[in-house]
Write a structure and sequence with these properties.
Number of helices: 4
Distance between the termini: 37 Å
Shape: globular
Strand content: 5-15%
Strand order of the largest sheet: 1-3-5-4-2
Helix content: 25-40%
Length: about 200
C-alpha cells in the first residue's frame, strides 16, 4: 500500500535509521518539467515564466532531505527564521534572503518517480485555491483565497507557480524505516504574505 503525505497534512512519528537516495538526471528533468508544465498553464495570460534548475539549491535541499531521513521523525521545515541580530535569513546560497521550501514524504518504493509525484501532490492543492477571491493571504491557507479543508493547504501549489520565483533545486533521501523524503527549495521565495502568486 502506498502512502503519501505533505508537511501540511501529516506529522508522522517514525523511528531512527538512515539510507541514502538522490535525485538522478532523469528524475531532475521530470521534476523541473512538472513545475514548468503547471507554470505554463497558470497566470492571468496564462504562462508563468519557467523555472531553471539550481545545483546549489539542490545541494542545499539534499542536505535537508538527508537530515530528515537520518532523524526519521517525519516532515519538518528547515528553520528559516530571521537572525535576531540583523533580521536576515541564515541562507548560505543567497545570504540574507529567504528560500521557499516544499516537502513531501512517501513509503512507496523509490523507483525514480517520487520527485514528479511530489510535484503532482503539491499541484493538487490548486483545487482549494481561488485566485479571483484571494486577498493576499491564500498562500497562507486563509480564506477567501484558500478554501482547503483542515489538514490541507494551498501554499505548496502557490509556491510551485509563484511568478517571481525563478529557480528550484530538490533533494531526496530514504530513511531506514522506508520513508523517502523530498525537499525542494525555491528562489526567490514565494508565499510572501500578503501577496498573490501571479
Amino acid at each position: 500500500m502506498k502512502i503519501f503525505f505533505c508537511i501540511a497534512t501529516v506529522a508522522a512519528a517514525l523511528f531512527a535509521g538512515r539510507a541514502l537516495a538522490q535525485i538522478g538526471p532523469d528524475e531532475q528533468a521530470a521534476i523541473l518539467a512538472a513545475h514548468n508544465n503547471q507554470r505554463a498553464m497558470t497566470g492571468p495570460a496564462p504562462g508563468e515564466a519557467p523555472l531553471t534548475w539550481s545545483n546549489d539549491l539542490a545541494t542545499y535541499a539534499q542536505a535537508w532531505a538527508q537530515n530528515l531521513a537520518n532523524q526519521d521523525q517525519g516532515l519538518m521545515h528547515r528553520d528559516s527564521s530571521p537572525n535576531p541580530a540583523d533580521n536576515t535569513i541564515n541562507n548560505p546560497i543567497f545570504p540574507g534572503q529567504s528560500l521557499g521550501e516544499n516537502l513531501f514524504g512517501s513509503t512507496a518504493p523509490d523507483d525514480g518517480t517520487l520527485g514528479p509525484a511530489a510535484v503532482a501532490d503539491w499541484i493538487s492543492e490548486m483545487q482549494f485555491y481561488n485566485h479571483a477571491a484571494d486577498d493576499g493571504n491564500g498562500a497562507a491557507g486563509l480564506p477567501p483565497g484558500c478554501t482547503a479543508p483542515q489538514g490541507n493547504s494551498c501554499g505548496h501549489y502557490t509556491q510551485v507557480v509563484w511568478s517571481t520565483t525563478t529557480q528550484v533545486g530538490c533533494g531526496k533521501a530514504t530513511s531506514a524505516s522506508g520513508w523517502t523524503f523530498i525537499d525542494c527549495n525555491y528562489f526567490p521565495a514565494g508565499n510572501i504574505i500578503p501577496g498573490l502568486p501571479f
